[in-house]
Amino acid sequence: MPTIRVTDLHVRHRKTVALDSLDVDFGPGVHGLLGPNGAGKTSLIRVLATVAEPNSGRVEILGEDTGEHRRRSAVRRRLGYLPQEFGYYPGFTVREFVAYVAWLKDMPAAETPAAVERAVARVGLGDRIDAKVRTLSGGMVRRVGIAQAIVNDPRVLLLDEPTAGLDPEQRVEFRELLRELGASATVIVSTHLVEDVAAACTEVTLIDAGRVAYRGTPESLAALGETAAGVVGDNPIERGYTAALRAHRGPESAAPTAHPLEGAAR
Amino acid sequence: MTLIAAQDHAHGQEPGQQAHDNAPSAPPPRASRRPRRASRHPLRAEFLRGFAPWTGVALFLAIAVAMAGTSAQWQGGWAETRGRLHTTAVLLGVPLALAAGCRQGGRERRRRTEELMATAVRGTLARFLAAALPVACWAVAGYVVAAALTLLATALRATGDRPDLVAPLTDAVALASAVLVGHVVGRRLPWRLTPPLLAVAGYVVLGFVTYDSTGSLRHLTPIGDTSDIDVPVWWQPLVMAVWTGGLAAAAVLAYAARRRFTALLPLAAAMAAGTLLVQTGDGLWHTNPVARRQVCDTSTTPQICVNARYEDLLPQVTAALADLTGRLDGVQNLPVRFTDLPGEPGPDEVRLPITTPIGWTVVRGRLASPRQFAWEAGMALYDRAECDTAVDPSVARVDEAVQHYLAPNPLAGDFDKLEAEGSEADRAELRDRLEARARLREMGGEERRAWLSAYFATARACDPSEVPAL
Amino acid sequence: MTTSGPLLYVRSRTVPRTVAALAATAALAVWAAHELDAYLDPDRRVPVIALAPLFAAAVIGTSLYTASEELDRTAVRPWWRRRLVHLLTLTALAAALLPWAVLGHASFFGPSAMIRNTLGCTGLTAAAAALLGARLSWLPVFGYVSAVYLGASALRGNSVPLWAWLVQPAAERGAWVVALVAFGVGGVLYVLRGARAEGARD
């Protein structure tokens, strides 16, 4: 039973097409969203987060049509979102900032303090909870961003490049957290780091030029890389990524060096 | 992956790498003994962090410094205090409040939290108020503290009348409104230059409307009229608050409300209030009933009256004039009293040397120079200003001698010395003058009273032959 | 679009917009002086003489902002020259434009008083930019100028103290000294230190 159902979605930014009649659905679990820069990953996440309005198409989240204004706040209550560019108020402490977001999400006041502490502890900032955000390092700020996204125990969690700025150790812990969250919620993680996808995701969606280029499990993507010939990549899943992109783009871009693989190269 | 996992362990031992100890599935630390700060309201941070408290500090400092710098001109007089505080709060505070609100309004863009805000369940209006109201509250708080200190300063040196506590409330509404309007502008135009631009624009608009003190639009600015003897009608502060608050509420609702047409309601209220203010015009103000009364000391000749706004000055004034009235004891043909009311004095009265505006004669509830005051009071007892021709030197000499006898000019010694070092004509003039003074001084008590009575009978005469000679 | 260094620097500090804002300030000042019938009585020019330089200084102050503070510090070229030219050029522009609003009456509130106030206000703003950051650099100057403007009207006749240099006639020598010192100190402070980094506040 999918929790997110996207039908014929079109998103345009001025003259460029970001998403081109996209049909996709997501169920509980951790979904990796891969694709080159400018493929439309962020556009999709922003539409799912109800931040951006699609030009046309239908988005249903948890059974509610987000095109309807009234249904939107019901969706937002059960939604967590970490924007690609995470802004914060540096003068707030971690606790204050996460509590503020909880207030924005209209959580019951009685539950908020405990929920805030739980969320902050889950991202491993329990000992810095009363530190001002401005005193934190870049990776810690990113974890504050994750904490605010999960403070309301969301059923749908949208994370746009959550691992940017995290050190290897933190990323390992973060993958652990993702797996835990994916047990009950629908988690969509946009990323350039294929090893995150391999380690933490149950499903992979590859987007290219506003369309779905590939869907499957990390294992099937890796298998695709093993069977395809003449593709670049340091590990099976990177090769699978390249092969899936090439297969999607078809014969016109078949030349091996025609397109630099920005996404995978990162 | 194994490599990373191995590093994991190695790092986990290092101090400061707490992250690993709080592994995602671990129970939250210190959950059992939650500190009190955990249960604080989420919006508390908006009040205490960031820019909002600084707004209060800035407003307090600006108003307090401006008031302190001019304290001689208002301390001790309630009407003066009201007027000065009001002008300062509006001319200085409103542009600052606009700028502060505007800066706070640009925060979401500056801090790049717009994206996060867009997913909030709370409506735009709730989020707007959560961000804007703390600044407004702090601005009002800064003003209120400054105003309280100002009122206290005057209370310590008050000489009569009573404080007006409603006017500061109108100012507080105006300041809060300015913050909200500034916030709307800041949200709409989140640029670096917007706050100073808005502040200067506010300054220019307020400055211009008050500069043209005859136009009827001036009744719309929160500055209004600041004449010291006028007070507003009782409903003026209320209507003014509706006017400024209504405009701000309309701007906020038009920007943030889900149903924008609700902005029409406060807008209509503001328009009605504005129309009422402009239509009523000068009728908004009337002379303070207290200012039309005076309190008198009837034991002296002439009697001494002080405007009721400064009734507590009467003992000081009486003391300053004690020598003068003592020397006039038993003299006939004097005015009945020194009077201190708006308008022309009556036929038997002369005006008390002016005590207003305070800061010159009266400073902080005290007569700055009693001798100067007494001299000016003596000068008021004769008046040849209406004469067609210049006053005859002999009459001028007599007038001067009387003045010198009653209450000498504090600078008389200096003038005499200057003339003693001057030309031959100056020295002759000085000699004549000193002789006149000496003749008056050497008269017997009865003789002098008779002479003075004759003199004051001609205090307004222009013909030199009428004035008794010395 | 060009890739010449100086031009790119100019665009990085939004100088074109600043110049436009300065021109608009001057136009506004001319209009205001006319509306106040300032040609009748030089004293009526005091609002223009005090507020126009304040506005120009605020505009110049915000143009000192840099979006790439960290990066700037690693530059090979010495920044002080660029900052000096930047500050001097904009101040000179403001000082050249604003006096048109108040021609005549040179020894009271005429062009030279306008230039003096422009220099003084810009100096204070530059100092504030170095100490507070460019975004808020207008705030202390704004508070100071309005306090002086309000306070000085209540001051007695000729004994206007030195801190009220803004509202003194141009012939007053002390006022010139204060303004020049403010410009010198503020300018040197900014040229040496640059605008304060203001990444993480409020």
Could you please describe the fold and organization of this structure?
The complex is a heterotrimer of chains A (266), B (470) and C (202). Chain A is built from 10 helices and 10 strands. Chain A has 2 domains: 1-78 and 155-169 and 186-252, 3-Layer(aba) Sandwich (Rossmann fold), CATH 3.40.50; 85-153, no CATH class. Chain A has helices at residues 41-48, 69-77, 94-104, 112-122, 138-150, 168-182, 194-200, 218-227, 236-249, 262-265, and strands at 4-13, 16-26, 29-34, 56-61, 64-65, 79-82, 156-160, 186-190, 203-208, 211-216. Helix content of chain A is 38%, strand content 23%. Chain B has 470 residues and is mainly α. Chain B folds into 3 domains: 44-287, no CATH class; 293-379, no CATH class; 393-457, no CATH class. Chain B has 19 helices and 8 strands. In chain B, the strands form 3 sheets. Chain B has a 4-stranded mixed β-sheet with strand order 3-4-5-6, with helices on one face. Chain B has a two-stranded antiparallel sheet with strand order 1-2. A two-stranded antiparallel sheet of chain B has the order 7-8. In chain B, a hairpin with a 2-residue loop joins β7 (362-363) and β8 (366-367). The longest helix of chain B is centred in the first third of the chain and has 34 residues, at 124-157. Chain B starts with a helix and ends in a 13-residue tail after the last helix. Chain C has 202 residues and is mainly alpha-helical. Chain C has one domain (5-193). In chain C, α3 (46-63) packs antiparallel against α5, α3 packs antiparallel against α7 and α6 (111-132) packs across α7. The model of chain C has no long low-confidence stretch (mean pLDDT 84). The chains are: A alpha/beta (266), B mainly alpha (470), C mainly alpha (202).
| Helix share bin of chain B | 55-70%
CATH-level-2 architecture of the largest domain in chain A: 3-Layer(aba) Sandwich
Tally of separate domains of chain B: 3
Element pattern of chain A in H and E: EEEHEEHEHHHEHEHEEHHH
Hey, roughly how much beta strand do the residues of chain A contain? 15-25%
Count the beta strands of chain A: 10
Mean pLDDT of chain A: 88
Domain module tally of chain A: 2
Mean pLDDT of chain B: 84
The fraction of residues assigned to DSSP E strands of chain B is: 5-15%
Residue share in helix of chain A:
25-40%
